[in-house]
Each structure stands twice: as C-alpha cells, then as structure tokens.
C-alpha cells in the first residue's frame, strides 16, 4: 500500500541535449546520444522481445507477455517495448502487461516534456500522458490501446514493494533492470531485489541491464539467473543479460 504523504515527485532538470537529469542522484535518465535506441538495444533486443511478441498467436498457447521493470523513470522503456509490440504482434487478442516500480515519479508536466523529445513514439506517448494522473498520490494503473496494453506503476521503494507481491499476482517473462547507476543509487541493486525478481519470474524469464558491475552479476547469479556479458550500447563496452535457471 502507498501513502500519499510518502510519495515525492522526482526533481529533474534538462541538459542542452534535452536529456532529463535527476537532481537527487545526479544521473541521466537515458543516453545523451539516442535514448530511445538505447532502450531498444538494451531491453527490447537483449530480451528477445521481437521474436517473443511475434509468437503471441496461434498455434502458440501463450497470448500475453509480462514485463517487469525496476525503475519507470520517463516511461521511455515502456514506449520502446510498446512500439515493438505493435510492430511484431499479429494477434488482436495479444496483450502486453508492463509492471514497473518507481520511488520518485515524474509529475505529468515533466513526463510530457521528456517524452515529447521522441516524435517516433509520439502517438503512444500521447496516450500515456493523457491517462497519467495530474496528481500522483497512489499506485498508477492504466489500460492503453483499448486494454491491449496494461501498465501498473507501483510507487515507493522497490525493495519494499516487490516483497509485497504474491506469485499469484505477478509472473514476469522479461525484466528491465533499470535503476540509476549502481554507484549513484545502490539501493536499487540489492540482493533482496534480485531474489524477489527470481521469485516472481517464469521458468524461462530473461533479464537485461545496462550495467556490467561485478556485484550485480554475482548477485543475480546467486538469486538463480544464468548471467553473461554482451556488447553494451554505443560506446559502452559491456552490459549484462541473463535467464532464469530451471
């Protein structure tokens, strides 16, 4: 449960590139070079979502895919996944379920300013912004695209909120592990979080994260994920991807 007195909006500024920066954590929300392409490469592509979205149709029995995300931020990861869902899905009954955690949600004005930077997903961003509450006082639950896309944003500390979730309430197929950098915000990269991610994962769940930090890799391995490094986005040398064991 969330208490509106405990909810604090993010305090952000925008640099000369139009990239939002967290004043609290002194870190950018996405790449200065191409944030949308970064989201696609790191989270959509490395979780094999194009292929998995395309399979949400007969003769396959699975018609929905559940994504779990550890930091909603500007919603740009949602935009990248949603756009790819629309590009790949042929089954009108297919659904995308997107569950994210956010301790410091953007207010509606800042969310709109951040997403207006990306005309490629302008129509999707418009739907999200129209449905986003003007005053964020509790968890956000939004049905988009005539209910085909379900968005649930759980507010508060991710370590507390994920511990409250029952396995019957959420079963995640793909994780976007996307807090601010571990050096900036270590509370979003804890062993407890990794263990709850594993608890709420399907047997074949995948994960991807921009970081290649050794303690993150070891923590996820201990929680039950097979982990490996792959090429990072742009000039970044490495990032981590993984899959649930067994």
Question: Can you walk me through this structure?
Answer:
The protein has a single domain, classed as Vaccinia Virus protein VP39 (Rossmann fold, 3-Layer(aba) Sandwich), CATH 3.40.50.150. Strands 6-7-5-4-8-9-11-10 form an eight-stranded mixed beta sheet, sandwiched between helices. Strands 1-2-3 form a three-stranded antiparallel beta sheet, with no helix packed on it. Helix 4 (108-115) packs antiparallel against helix 5. It contains eight helices and eleven strands. The chain has helices at 35-45, 49-54, 76-88, 108-115, 122-131, 158-164, 191-199, 214-223, and strands spanning 12-14, 20-22, 27-28, 64-69, 95-102, 140-144, 149-155, 172-177, 201-209, 225-231, 238-244. The model is unreliable at 1-5 (pLDDT under 50). A hairpin with a 4-residue loop joins strand 2 and strand 3. It is an alpha/beta fold and 246 residues long. The chain is 30% helix and 26% strand.
Distance between the termini: 32 Å
**Pairing-aware structural class of the strands and helices?**
alpha/beta
Mean pLDDT: 94
The CATH architecture:
3-Layer(aba) Sandwich
Percent strand equals: 25-35%
CATH-wise, what's the superfamily? Vaccinia Virus protein VP39
Give the count of helical stretches.
8
Strand order of the largest sheet: 6-7-5-4-8-9-11-10
CATH topology annotation: Rossmann fold
């Amino acid at each position: 449960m969330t208490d509106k007195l405990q909810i604090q909006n993010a305090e952000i500024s925008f640099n000369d590139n139009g990239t939002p920066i967290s004043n609290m954590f002194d870190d950018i929300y996405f790449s200065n070079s191409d944030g949308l392409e970064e989201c696609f490469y790191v989270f959509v592509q490395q979780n094999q979502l194009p292929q998995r979205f395309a399979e949400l149709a007969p003769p396959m029995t699975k018609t929905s895919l559940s994504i779990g995300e550890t930091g909603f931020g500007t919603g740009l990861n949602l935009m990248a996944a949603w756009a790819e869902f629309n590009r790949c899905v042929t089954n009108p009954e297919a659904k995308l379920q997107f569950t994210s955690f956010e301790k410091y949600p953007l207010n509606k004005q800042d969310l709109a300013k951040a997403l207006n930077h990306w005309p490629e997903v302008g129509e999707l961003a418009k739907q999200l912004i129209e449905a986003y509450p003007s005053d964020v006082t509790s968890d956000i639950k939004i049905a988009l695209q005539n209910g085909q896309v379900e968005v649930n944003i759980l507010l508060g500390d991710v370590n507390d909120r994920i511990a409250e979730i029952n396995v019957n309430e959420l079963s995640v197929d793909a994780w976007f592990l996307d807090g601010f950098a571990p050096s900036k915000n270590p509370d979003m990269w804890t062993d407890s979080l990794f263990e709850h991610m594993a608890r709420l994962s399907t047997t074949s769940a995948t994960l991807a994260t921009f970081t290649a930090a050794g303690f993150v890799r070891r923590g996820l391995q201990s929680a039950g994920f097979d982990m490996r490094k792959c090429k990072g986005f742009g000039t970044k040398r490495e990032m981590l991807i993984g899959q649930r064991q067994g």
